[in-house]
Amino acid sequence: MSHVSSKGLYYTIFISLIILTGVTVAIARVDLGAWNTPIALAVAAVKATLVILFFMGVRNNTPLTKVVAASGFLWLIILFGITMGDYLTRSWLGIPGR
Amino acid sequence: MNHAVNEPRSYLDAPYGVASWLLTKDHKRIALLYLISITVFFLIGALFAAGIRAELMTPEGDLFTADMYNKLFTLHGVVMVFFFLIPSIPATLGNFLVPIMCGAKDLAFPKINLLSWYLYLIGATLTLGAVFMGGVDTGWTFYTPYSSMASNTNVTLAAVGVFIAGFSSILTGFNFVVTIHRMRAPGLTWFRMPLFLWAMYATSLVMILGTPVVAITLLMVGAEAALGFGIFDPRVGGDPVLFQHLFWFYSHPAVYIMILPGMGVISELVAAVSRKQIFGYSFVAYSSLAIAIIGFLVWGHHMFVSSQSIYAGLVFSIITMIVAVPSAVKTFNWTATLYRGSITWESPTYWVIGFIGLFLVGGLTGLFLGAMGLDVHLHDTYFVVAHFHYIMVGGGVMAFLGGVHFWWPKMTGRTYPETLGKISAVLVFVGFNLTFLPQFVVGYLGMPRRYHAYPEEFQILNVVSTGGASVLGIGYLLIIGYLVASMFKPRNATANPWGATGLEWDIPSPPTTFNFEIDPVVTEDAYNYAGRAQKTGDN
Ligand code: HEM
Ligand SMILES: [Cu+2]
After folding, report:
1. Do A51 and A73 belong together in one domain?
2. What pLDDT is attached to residue B283?
3. Using an 8 Å Cβ cutoff, are B524 and B449 in contact?
4. Are A18 and A51 members of one domain?
5. Are residues A1 and A49 in the same domain?
6. Chain B: nearest CA to A7, how far in angstroms?
7. Tens digits of per-residue pLDDT, A30-72?
8. Together in a domain, A36 and A47
9. What is the DSSP letter of B151?
10. Is the Cβ–Cβ distance between B224 and B233 less than 8 Å?
11. In chain A, % of residues over pLDDT 70
12. How far is CA B423 from CA B253, B289, B502, in A?
């Protein structure tokens, strides 16, 4: 890594992560119905993105490194997305006996 | 070649002794360590297969109990897939050739390369431990609930072994990607690379992106058993079909880990035996990447009858038709390369022709299975067994053996009797078809896989299959015999016995420890046979 970020930036990210952890705990206490899981995952995704971009230094890295990091995410989306494509459409035909 | 006294010694002669081999960082020595290890596992896996075929000689389940039979086919699958076929080409030919084809002295991370071999051995030992403690009976797919709630065998130990071996292939893939990105010789642009490098690159991507998923999945099975998390067990809110999603998300791409390297080998061999530039080089190169990427989108074709949503099945079925296209591109381009080539009938030629025929049958029957409606009839029958053996053994193992025959003089400095090389290729081809062609028929007629007994009317076809397996076995043993024998003969291989192009053929057989005395500079495309013929005036 050629470029080293300032201390202040690291503290800002650290505090943001703490706040987001607070958010995670807070929304766990509120029942959002079907949105429970998606919102919890969204907060987690934001936290992971902050860690990858700043603490792991991907933001100031070569394009190739960015592609590698992004493709890891993309593959996770493929895994979750297509699997959910099964679960969410299973009931479309109706379940015999119900 | 004249051997001057102070010429650098070959990698086989440079420091001697057991320790110098077991602690080596030389990619070529690690390739040989792997070659020996996977051969041992091939023989162990073959022993289990012999048990299966012996049982199926007769309709009654008389030789083994049902439980014992379950263990035989499970161990056959686990050993052959995870400890033979997945490491076969990448860890042996790949380890040996990737740095040399790049014009480099070694892989990017030689110590990690050695670590991968040790991880492989540790994983293999644990899984073998499970065998001696009573075996595993879940099938190589470790489906829940066989592997969780209903498990009564050493699934955990076997799964831990597979888990650890998985890291060995991640490390190999990682090493190859970095080497191909960073260590290519001056002038070796991406589109001058031998197609074997493209194939190894695509394979490495699949290894890196897919293997962690199966590792975590096996870990989750363990976590559920030990800590009671509700992941796959419906009693605590889990779903057993989720296991199949996670497993096949890795294992369909993993079937490409097994065949892409074979395709890379065949691309090299086709060009060499027909003395021609490969037809449509860039299409063959890109099709490897296409297979690697689209291969991640089709896993649900293993789950058409698993209670997976029919709409998801529909999409998986359509994408499965698409993934066959890049494989077809390769097959057509190999054929077009052979067409009007100056084909020489040397032993690698036999393996190439055998591969193309068998892979074609395997790939086309994959399309039958990918058709969602037809698969309801064919799923879990011997038709599926025949399909994947045509690809994995007819394709994967033929390509591996073709590659071993092609590069053996380079790797060991020895030649083997050409006639025996040809005879064994024919034996393997004939034995293979006798073994697996009847299984298409018997499966289509309705014989399910994974039972030790079957209705009487299927006996004739099963006897043919067992007979064929014996011919196949003789073919394999013959190869091991003459290759091992060649090691006890003097080194007689020239630097370029096939008159092939490629950096590996410009250096001595066997190469010296650091491969190149002078750092190579690449000035021409791969497979420039036309240019070479002009220069030397031969052909
Ligand atoms: C060329 C394109 C291919 C297509 C369209 C295809 C399609 C399929 C389909 C639909 C199945 C599921 C059948 C069922 O369980 O009912 C299947 C099973 C299988 N295929 Fe392929 N396949 C292809 C290539 C390959 C390759 C390249 C390999 C391995 C190198 C492979 C190995 C397997 C294995 C191991 C299974 C069975 C797994 C099990 O249930 O134990 N296939 N294939
Ligand atoms: Cu598949």
Report:
1. no
2. 97
3. no
4. yes
5. yes
6. 31
7. 888 888 888 998 999 999 999 999 988 898 889 988 998 899 8
8. yes
9. -
10. yes
11. 91
12. 34, 35, 28
Q: What are phi and psi of B145, to 5 degrees?
A: -85, 5
Same domain, A87 and A56: no
**Whose atoms come closest to the Cα of B88: which ligand?**
1
pLDDT value at residue A5? 64
Question: Residue B316 Cα, ligand 1 centroid: separation in angstroms?
Answer: 13
Residue B149: per-residue pLDDT:
75
> Contact at 8 Å (CB) between B29 and B11?
yes
| Contact indicator for B101, B196 with CB cutoff of 8 Å | yes
Same domain for A47 and A18, yes or no, is yes
* Backbone phi and psi for residue B448, each to the nearest 5 degrees, phi listed first: -75, 155
Q: Consecutive 10-residue runs of chain B (539 residues): their mean pLDDT?
A: 60 84 94 97 97 96 94 96 96 98 96 97 95 90 84 84 94 97 96 97 95 90 82 88 95 95 97 94 96 96 94 96 96 95 93 97 96 96 97 97 97 96 97 98 97 96 97 97 96 93 94 93 92 60
Q: What is the pLDDT of residue A2?
A: 46
Whether the CB-CB separation of B475 and B393 falls below 8 Å is answered with no
Same structural domain, A54 and A74: no
- Pocket (CB within 6 angstroms of ligand 1): B 141, 255-256, 258-259, 301-302, 320, 323-324, 327, 363, 366-367, 369-370, 375, 378-379, 384, 387-388, 391-392, 396
Q: Do A9 and A52 sit in the same domain of this protein? A: yes
Closest approach of B290 to chain A, Cα-based (Å): 15
Q: Residue B487: what residue type?
A: M
Residue closest via CA to ligand 1's atom 23 equals: B366
Q: Which of A83, A86, A88 is the best mutation test for B, with the most CBs of B within 10 A?
A: A86
Segment 79-98 of chain B within 8 Å of chain A by CB: none
Question: What type of residue is B121?
Answer: L
| Nearest ligand 1 atom to alpha carbon B321 | 5
Site of tokens 């080497």: B179
Q: Does B307 touch chain A (CB under 8 A)?
A: yes
Q: The whole model's pTM is what?
A: 0.92
Instruction: List C-alpha distances in Å: B217 to B141, B251, B361, B434.
Output: 12, 12, 32, 37
Task: Give the residue numbers spanning the domain of A79.
Answer: 62-98
Mutate to test the pocket of ligand 1, among B388, B389, B390, B449 (most ligand atoms within 8 A of CB): B388
**Domains of chain B and CATH, by start:** 29-538 (1.20.210.10)
Q: Which residues of A touch B (CB under 8 A)?
A: 64, 71-72, 75, 78-79, 82-83, 85-90, 92-93
Number of domains in chain A: 2
**Interface TM-score (ipTM) > 0.90:** no
Distances B136 to A2, B127, B150, B177 between C-alpha atoms, Å? 51, 9, 12, 35
Return d(Cα B48, Cα B135) in angstroms, integer. Answer: 12
Separation of alpha carbons B399 and B93, rounded Å:
11
Helix axes B195-227, B155-182, angle to 10 degrees: 150
pLDDT for position A1: 45
